Amino acid sequence: MITGPDMSPSEKPGQALFRDQHTAVHASLLDLARDRFSALLARMFDGTDDSFFELANHAHTNNEQNRFFEAMREIRIRRRVIEAEFLAELEAELNAPGHYQEDLRAAADEIDMDTLSLVQNDALEESVAITTMVTKARANFAGELLNFQARVSSLYVHASAQNPVNPLDPDFIARTFLEVCHRSDLAMEIRERLILLKQFDREVLSFIGGILEDGNRLLAAAGILPNLKLGVQKSANSAGEAGTQSARPAAAAQNDSSAANAAEALAAQQQGEALFSQLQTLMASIRNKSGEAAENGGRAAPRDNVHYIADRQLFGALSNLQEQISERPLDDTQVLAVDMRASLDRFLASQHKDGPPPALSQADEDLINLVSMLFEFILQDYNLSAPVQVLISRLQIPILKVAIRDKAFFSKPSHPARKLLNSVAKAGIGWSDFSERRRDKLYEEIHSIVDRILNDYDGDMTLFQTLNDEFDAFRAREDRKASLVEQRTRESEVGRVKAQRAHRVVERLLQAKMEGGDLPDSAIRLLRNGWSQVMFLAFLKEESEHRFNQTVRVVDELTWCLQSRINRAGRERWVKIVPQLLKNLKSGLQDVSYDPAETEQLIIELKRDLTAHFKLASASTQPGDQDDVVGAPRSAVLSADIEAAKNAVERQAEMEDAALIEYLNRVDQLSPGAWVEYSLVNGSQFRCKLSTTIEETGTMIFVNRLGLKVVEKSRAEVAHELRRGRVKFLQEGMLVDRAMDAVMSNLRKISGKAA
After folding, report:
1. What is the pTM of this model?
2. Which of 137, 286, 558, 721 could link 170 by a cystine bridge, Cβ 3.0 to 4.6 Å?
3. What is the DSSP letter of 111?
4. Is the pLDDT of residue 524 over 70?
5. Could you tell me which InterPro entries the record lists for this protein (predicted)?
6. Please, what are the domains in the chain?
7. Could you give the CA distance from residue 750 to residue 267 in angstroms, rounded to a whole number?
8. d(Cα 408, Cα 276) in Å, to the nearest integer?
9. What does the DSSP assignment read for 620-634?
10. Kind of pairing, strands 307-308 and 358-359?
11. What is the Cα–Cα distance from 4 to 22, expressed in whole angstroms?
12. Is 602 within 8 Å of 558 (Cβ atoms)?
């Protein structure tokens, strides 16, 4: 608790008030902390939900899986309460630093030994987890913590350099979160609570350094110790000089790495400058051919009595325009087309007072035109989903600011801003429904990225790298979940389609075997109701195809025994076949768990009918008669029958005419993971990707970006839709790369140069 000599007796302990002259600063700091921690907590709970989902999917037992699903349910129910109470405690601590620490100590004092004995194991594990994460955070952000503590102490009446306060100390943040979880009656066992704490460490405490940095900037800008720079001296290890010596190679390696990175950045910048110079030459050639700037090597002649603004001034003007755009709501369904040249001219004219009027240099105009052409392609690219296109359209001015600072944007595919745009476009290729955006995680994430760029980008390229890293992590989590769902969908659909084919083949075979013969009711019931199931399962087991041949052989033997005329040789064969035949029939029905009582009854009736047929056939056979079937069917005959049944099914499934060949070839080029867009008769559209093609039937299974099946088509059906223009194949390549290629090609074409 912080106290001071000026505290009146009526003030409650720990109720330190902030100084009057810093009321506005305190309010801004409060808003900063509330907004940043609110965002971090939301992301943390989303990540926890994903973690429990993954754990449940990989659980070894049903009990373990249920525990993880229950934990996920608890999080979803309690998260709003936990977030609200945490932010309330944070606000109270910022208003009166030290109050909550006293509450925690008081609560600890109230725990008696009996209570402690019941919870000591769980409490010990939680305490160890909290101590570990706090120690790590204090070590990682020691400098930011010292600077913030020194500055923020100036806000409060009873704090000073001798008695500092820090309402954003990691210990307070971590223990407050734990206490709020306890108060919310979060019903989870210790294992799940530790997972939650680990997620809090990863998604909240690990980012507290950024909040402290922003807090330091805010306080310094308000004039509170603006020149303060408290360094943190890294202590040598316990080995003394040996530790110092061992650190030197690491420092040297770090220097080498920094030098290599600097060299790489310089090379990329030079390549970018060279590419931009080539593009300027093409644009100058176009201007020259249009009759403009005939002199001065194709460049516009310098205008008299004007002031060409520097990059710094152009950057500032664009920042002003960016701020205006950031004030517009992002939740729109229309692409924002910005005429940057006209907007800049208006802004520069509004700023002109005395002296020569400000104007853009030819290089700046070329740069603006180039970025405008890039975004013209991006905003007309059919492959980019409409909702993502709307959001990306807001980034035209920030990307122009990036290009002003770093021409490597044009030449370096791994440029942070370029990577981020490509990642956003790729992630959104399968998303097209505006109506679902408010409850869609992907839309919220891209919305947040655009919002942060518009509000936070001030020339520091690390913002794009940070956003790209965060978005990659988000996509990895989402892709893992979608992959699991898609795998299950694919396996289910493959099994279903194969089962349908097996049913058709078995039905055709039995129909062919039973035609032309007068089989008794017992045989018909056995074959159609029971033995068809045996054949069906045997057909599905492709790894042991001989099993299916055996089931067909049983059908042939049964029909022969019930339909053939029998001579002396036939009688001997009949007597030899029937016992094994009955045994095979009974064994097969048992293997498929056919009704035991029904099986027994069918076998009894079949024995009776076989015996009756044997007596009748033997009595009617003359001494010289030959058997209708000389022996058991040969494998070649069986194979021919099976192939005939399969071919009949295939002919029924697909009849290809010559007009479809071209489109079928295009369909066959689709590989799993390729995206397409379907247009329905009612005018609506949806996007999906090919999950798998089932070779045996040519069936193509398409899923949405969540891995759920949305459509099933045969090759011929997709080809027909393609010919009618109702399906379009989408291109998933890098968005900015495609835009750069298109702009270069277009400029070369217009300028008359060879591509």
Report:
1. 0.53
2. 137
3. -
4. yes
5. DUF1631
6. 20-221 (no CATH), 269-287+304-460 (no CATH), 491-653 (no CATH), 655-729 (2.30.30)
7. 30
8. 9
9. T--TT---SS-SSPP
10. parallel
11. 19
12. no
